[in-house]
């Protein structure tokens, strides 16, 4: 009996300490995070001292770099759990706008400070720099207070870490958050440190963890040995380091039986890498579940898309301006209105349009359903009537059969279903099967050396990927991909002219000075099929587009564009670099157009 009691006691103690160990492991991630935030606070204090003591630019710059490296270790958690604060710690040095309320907020954080101290630090910036550091320090204190009280469960840790890998791919190595100093490569390596450190707190004996440690260590070494921003090989780094790390994180999650986080996001929670063929969910921006995509809806939508009876005079369909063979554009500078005059804007591609939460160049509609109605009822485009179209469908037996298949829960076609069906067809137009996609999924022969060089320029020196985000290559911002951006680039009225396009873009709907000439950032996917380019079709070739950006956009050409969001300094691309950049963009063409 004594032996049995001893064994029972021993088992109980083992179970107790095992539970305690697991509980400590779960809280250690938070504890480590709080320690790292204290380190960040200490670095900012040192930064403040150097500025207050009028230290040299070299010392101030080095402290800035040190502070950012410490921030990169906690960025995964800040961006995931408290994104509202993150925006004012390391967001773009551009006004943050709330368009619904016509309000804007001045930017704060590292990127604002970077502009103050590099390439030259002027004494008159001292007061503003101290102000920025005080705001930053206040945000750090707020973060610590928040993290002390919130619960950080294993499923959220896995999701946050995976998102951080995607952040490094789409933002970190592109120079998005270090546009002037270009310290992105060593910072990318620093961002990966948290992966094994955090996961070993969940289970230090997991079989995938040892491989993750090796992979992250190799990735960090690669960044250290190849820290030149312009020369860094992003194709190699993503395909040989970041994608394998991403897969191992997912393997760790499965082995630990950790559930996926349920959230509304275009990125599916089941993906192994950012470049999985089915990585993005076209239902992410639908109005409600009843609007979700189905193949039956897409079949019905395709018939509606080509039906000229949707227009007032039965002579124009959606396909009249969106030709399938041209990636659903029309090849014209601007199309012709029903009255014979030129329309104001170029016809955009419908491919990948479903992975944006804003439609039209001026972003006036937030979803594809409203977009289709806008076009159908526009007196210059189709001049149709949704009421009349609905009436026609109610007496058309062929349509009634298709509607019944697409919407089996309703007894007869309803008006909203017409919009939803057309939108569903558009949602079916995302292939993700270009040569670039094949390369990212392991087919090394899909891209040649010239195209890989072009990819590295696109995501590096040429700064294309800081607005056309990987892998959608549009303005939908990673890693959550939940918001679509606009830019002011200073588009000319004529390719060889000296005047700025008079089109005010987004400003027509939100009278904010920052939005004058602002247009949605379109996708570069299928760009070789969708010429001419820009909102007014001003450029006929991709070479002309690259040349425009190389010169610094409108300001670089000498136009008065005070609110230009595109950097106006020259990119200094050589003729060869411009050529390989175009060569890379050609690899983004879907198979059906090759």
Can you characterise this structure?
By secondary structure, this protein is mostly helical. It folds into 4 domains: 29-151, M75 peptidase, HXXE motif (A middle domain of Talin 1), CATH 1.20.1420; 153-262; 289-427, Cytochrome c-like domain (Cytochrome Bc1 Complex, Chain D, domain 2), CATH 1.10.760; 435-593, Cytochrome c-like domain (Cytochrome Bc1 Complex, Chain D, domain 2, Orthogonal Bundle). 48% of the residues lie in helices and 2% in strands. The protein has helices spanning 2-52, 57-81, 83-90, 110-117, 126-149, 154-170, 184-191, 194-202, 207-225, 234-255, 295-305, 368-377, 386-393, 397-406, 415-427, 435-440, 449-458, 542-550, 553-556, 575-586; strands spanning 96-98, 103-105, 486-487, 519-520. Strands 1-2 form a two-stranded antiparallel ribbon. A two-stranded antiparallel ribbon has the order 3-4. A hairpin with a 4-residue loop joins strand 1 and strand 2 (103-105). Helix 2 (57-81) packs across helix 6.
List the helices and strands and how they pair.
Layout (H helix, E strand, L loop, with lengths): L1 H51 L4 H25 L1 H8 L5 E3 L4 E3 L4 H8 L8 H24 L4 H17 L13 H8 L2 H9 L4 H19 L8 H22 L39 H11 L62 H10 L8 H8 L3 H10 L8 H13 L7 H6 L8 H10 L27 E2 L31 E2 L21 H9 L2 H4 L18 H12 L8
Antiparallel strand pairs: 1-2, 3-4
Number of strands: 4
Which regions are unreliable across 5 or more consecutive residues at pLDDT < 50? 1-26
Helix content: 40-55%
Question: From the coordinates shown, what is the CATH architecture of the largest domain?
Answer: Orthogonal Bundle
Helix-strand pattern: HHHEEHHHHHHHHHHHHHHEEHHH
Percentage beta strand: under 5%
Gyration radius, rounded: 26 Å
Oligomeric form: single chain
End-to-end C-alpha gap = 80 Å
CATH uppermost class of the largest domain: Mainly Alpha
Structural class by secondary-structure content: mainly alpha
Major sheet summary line:
2 strands, antiparallel
Under CATH, the homologous superfamily of the largest domain reads Cytochrome c-like domain
Annotation field: number of helices = 20
What's the overall geometry?
Answer: globular
Number of domains: 4
Strand order of the largest sheet: 1-2
CATH third-tier fold name of the largest domain: Cytochrome Bc1 Complex, Chain D, domain 2
Question: What's the mean pLDDT score?
Answer: 93
């Amino acid at each position: 009996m004594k032996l049995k009691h001893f064994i029972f006691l021993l088992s109980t103690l083992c179970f107790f300490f095992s539970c305690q160990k697991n509980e400590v492991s779960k809280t250690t991630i938070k504890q480590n995070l709080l320690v790292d935030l204290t380190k960040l606070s200490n670095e900012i204090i040192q930064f403040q001292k150097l500025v207050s003591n009028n230290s040299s630019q070299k010392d101030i710059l080095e402290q800035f770099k040190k502070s950012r490296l410490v921030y990169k270790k906690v960025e995964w958690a800040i961006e995931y759990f408290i994104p509202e604060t993150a925006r004012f710690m390391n967001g773009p040095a551009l006004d943050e706008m709330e368009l619904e309320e016509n309000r804007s907020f001045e930017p704060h954080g590292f990127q604002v400070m970077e502009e103050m101290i590099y390439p030259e630090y002027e004494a008159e910036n001292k007061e503003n720099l101290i102000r920025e550091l005080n705001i930053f320090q206040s945000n750090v204190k707020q973060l610590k207070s928040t993290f002390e009280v919130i619960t950080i469960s294993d499923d959220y840790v896995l999701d946050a870490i995976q998102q951080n890998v995607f952040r490094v791919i789409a933002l970190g190595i592109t120079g998005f958050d270090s546009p002037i100093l270009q310290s992105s490569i060593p910072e990318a390596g620093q961002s990966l440190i948290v992966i094994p450190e955090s996961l070993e707190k969940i289970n230090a004996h997991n079989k995938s963890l040892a491989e993750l440690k090796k992979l992250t260590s190799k990735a960090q070494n690669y960044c250290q040995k190849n820290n030149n921003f312009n020369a860094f090989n992003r194709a190699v780094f993503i395909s040989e380091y970041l994608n394998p790390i991403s897969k191992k994180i997912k393997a760790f999650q499965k082995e630990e039986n950790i559930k996926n986080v349920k959230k509304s996001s275009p990125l599916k929670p089941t993906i192994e890498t950012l470049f999985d063929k089915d990585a993005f969910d076209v239902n992410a921006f639908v109005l409600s579940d009843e609007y979700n995509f189905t193949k039956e809806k897409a079949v019905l939508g395709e018939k509606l898309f080509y039906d000229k009876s949707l227009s007032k005079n039965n002579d124009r369909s959606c396909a009249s301006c969106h030709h399938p063979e041209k990636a659903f554009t029309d090849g014209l500078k601007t199309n012709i209105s029903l009255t014979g005059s030129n329309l104001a804007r170029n016809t955009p591609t419908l491919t990948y349009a479903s992975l944006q939460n804003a439609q039209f160049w001026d972003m006036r509609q937030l979803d594809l359903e409203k977009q289709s109605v806008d076009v159908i009822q526009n007196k210059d485009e189709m001049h149709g009537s949704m009421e009349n179209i609905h009436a026609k469908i109610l007496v058309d037996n062929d349509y009634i059969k298709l509607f019944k298949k697409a919407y089996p829960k309703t007894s007869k076609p309803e008006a909203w279903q017409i919009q939803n069906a057309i939108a569903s067809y558009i949602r079916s137009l995302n292939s993700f099967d270009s040569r670039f996609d094949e390369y990212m999924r392991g087919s090394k022969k899909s891209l040649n050396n010239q195209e890989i060089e072009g990819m590295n320029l696109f995501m590096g020196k040429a700064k294309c990927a800081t607005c056309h985000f990987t892998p959608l290559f549009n303005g939908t911002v990673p890693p959550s991909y939940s918001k679509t951006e606009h830019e002011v680039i200073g588009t000319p009225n004529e390719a060889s002219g000296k005047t700025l396009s008079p089109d005010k873009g987004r400003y027509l709907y939100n009278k904010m000075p920052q939005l004058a000439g602002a247009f949605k950032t379109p996708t570069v996917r299928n760009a070789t099929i969708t010429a001419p380019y820009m909102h007014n079709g001003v450029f006929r070739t991709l070479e002309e587009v690259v040349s425009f950006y190389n010169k610094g956009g409108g300001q670089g050409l000498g136009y008065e564009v005070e609110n230009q969001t595109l950097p106006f300094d020259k990119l200094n691309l050589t003729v060869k670099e411009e050529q390989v950049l175009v060569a890379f963009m050609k690899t983004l063409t879907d198979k059906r157009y090759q």
